[in-house]
């Protein structure tokens, strides 16, 4: 704890100037997953795709009007928060759960929830299990240094069941162990289960069980101490949500700039000085939508039913369509 506190103290003073630092570098340094389909995944040529990756591109678009001014640093779960605390990355956008201890003890802020998730289980069909409550005595593969270990212990204790944990340092090693038969079940966030199933040696033989055993609000993290930077990260997500609510897309954003709708005028910068208030230009949201699109477009492209993962919007639908995603008003 002492080392973490010292790290936070060192970075606290310098954290005030994150936007200035990013501008001076000419690029945003984004802590990303080291390989999770749909969220953060580089191909053989080093081209990154994923919902979390596009969020960093949206921040870069807001700052530079150029979504390519991002350098992605792949981080394992055990290294991700240290990299942010030390200033190695400007923002962490790597399917990380916001929790009280991470907020209050690690010196981090979680400005937005970009994906509402929950922990689940995947098993082989031949195991003959249709519910997580049938896993008494099972061996479970999980990753060290994540919220999944505690959730797993809580679930089995609450249901008076026994289990054997088989833990690994990286998500890659964890899934490979499950896929090779080292354990009966694999547990991680449900989104991760759908992503990892794609690279199973037998994807059609895997089944994701129905139980969700935890709340996993996933989103970008920043260091404590720079409220302006936290605002920029928060309002990047809100801009994408509000754009979807207002029917503004990558294809029509230029035409929408002439709209008489006061909400659209404020969001797109033709009325008010909302961008300048956080150190950006007043067309900050136009830049985001022009280059990346609204939240629904990014979701569908990366993890939605039009993608390989085929995840339903569910809790990540807009509040007006039964979900939890709710854009704070620009006014």
UniProtKB/TrEMBL annotation:
Pfam families: SBP_bac_3. Keywords: Signal, Transport. GO terms for biological process: amino acid transport. This is Amino acid ABC transporter substrate-binding protein. Residues 27-256 form the Solute-binding protein family 3/N-terminal domain. Coiled coil: none annotated. The lineage of its organism: Bacteria, Pseudomonadati, Pseudomonadota, Alphaproteobacteria, Hyphomicrobiales. Belongs to the bacterial solute-binding protein 3 family.
């Amino acid at each position: 704890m002492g080392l973490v506190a010292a790290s936070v103290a060192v970075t606290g003073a310098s954290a005030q100037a994150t936007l200035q630092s990013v501008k001076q570098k000419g690029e945003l340094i984004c802590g990303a997953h080291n390989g999770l389909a749909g969220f953060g995944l580089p191909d053989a040529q080093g081209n990154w795709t994923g919902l979390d990756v596009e969020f960093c591109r949206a921040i870069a678009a807001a700052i530079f009007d150029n979504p390519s001014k991002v350098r992605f640093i792949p981080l394992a779960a055990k290294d991700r928060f240290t990299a942010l605390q030390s200033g190695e990355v400007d923002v962490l956008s790597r399917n990380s759960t916001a929790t009280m201890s991470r907020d209050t003890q690690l010196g981090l802020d979680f400005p937005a929830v970009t994906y509402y998730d929950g922990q689940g289980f995947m098993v082989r069909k031949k195991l003959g299990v249709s519910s997580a409550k049938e896993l008494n005595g099972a061996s479970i593969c999980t990753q060290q240094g994540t919220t999944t270990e505690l959730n797993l212990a809580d679930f089995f204790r609450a249901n008076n069941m026994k289990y054997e944990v088989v833990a690994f340092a990286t998500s890659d090693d964890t899934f490979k162990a499950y896929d090779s038969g080292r354990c009966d079940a694999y547990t991680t966030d449900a989104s991760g289960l759908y992503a990892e199933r794609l690279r199973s040696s037998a994807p059609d033989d895997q089944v994701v069980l129905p139980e969700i055993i935890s709340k996993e609000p996933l989103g970008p993290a920043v260091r404590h101490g720079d409220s302006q930077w936290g605002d920029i990260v928060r309002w990047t997500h809100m801009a994408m949500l509000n754009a979807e609510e207002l029917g503004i897309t990558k294809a029509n954003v230029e035409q929408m700039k002439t709209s008489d709708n006061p909400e659209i005028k404020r969001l797109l910068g033709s009325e008010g000085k909302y961008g300048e208030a956080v150190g950006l230009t007043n067309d900050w949201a136009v830049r985001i939508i022009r280059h990346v699109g609204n939240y629904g477009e990014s979701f569908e492209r990366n993890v939605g039913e039009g993608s390989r993962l085929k995840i339903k919007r569910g809790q990540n639908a807009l509040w007006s369509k039964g979900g939890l995603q709710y854009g704070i008003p620009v006014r």
